[in-house]
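Lab manual, section 2.4: Encoding a predicted structure.

Procedure: take the sequence of the chain (301 residues), apply the prediction step described in section 2.3, and record the output as structure tokens. A sample record is shown.
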Amino acid sequence: MTGVSLLVLGNANIDLVLGEIDGWPEIGTEVMVERSEMRAGGSAGNTSLALTGMGIAHCFIASTGNDPNGKWLREQFNPQSCIWLTETCDTTLTVGIVHAGGDRAFFTTPGHLQRAKTSDLIDHIPAAPDAHACAIVSGGFLMPDIRAGTADLLRLLQQRGWKTAIDPGWPPPGWDAETRQQVREWMALADYSLLNQEEVLGLADTGDDIEAAARSDLGRLRQQAVLVVKCGAAGAMAFQGKDVFRLTGPPVEVKDTVGAGDTFNAAFLAEQARGGSIAEALKSGVLTAARAISSFPRIYC
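Recorded output:
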């Protein structure tokens, strides 16, 4: 697949979203929820779906299992945008529990994500079509081999002409010293680091000041690299050298926040791939994510 200016690499899995609940139930009890939705998900998968929803051409390279769930998952994506790799195992399933106010918790099975290989992704990466073309690697913490190979993957993408973006997500074991060092290595290689506020605080381990936490890592970034901090209902911030860009999110009635950050990534990088400014990209990301989380079924534009 050639000629597209956006490349998405990472995880796709099935999401079963249930909610809302108001606090965790006691063990042994049963709770009725008002709605449920089985849908395609995963950090990279959500970004691809958002790009499709916005009518933006892109290439999505990911894997599924070879079970019926894998077939169903692949069918939820635009076939013209996807290169699928198939693992001989069950497809990963994530159950998302939505809490009152829009917060959520996730429970994920190992499945095919545990078998995804960096080498398989590398075999399918095309050359970038132009100087603004962007490639994002996301969801790597759920894929051991891709986590181990992310630095090499970022270097290869740059060799093939892509501007690179990283969204590591939240590490399931937490932010230990090894994880912090690894993520900082990725950020030092990437042109765009796209993190949410909890991830920035966990990575920096400097307290509750978001801006101070973000600035603690700015010195490790490449020249002209951008650090984006996604702040939920508060909007987002972007740091590039000494410049800081801020945008407050619009007031919306939240239906479901699952995939909000991944949707932001899609709109932000699409604007950058068009040659837009950081401020324009920040606005596109915030407004598109707000539209997505306040609609059911989701709309992106």
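Check your result against the sample. The chain has one domain: 6-11+43-87+114-293.
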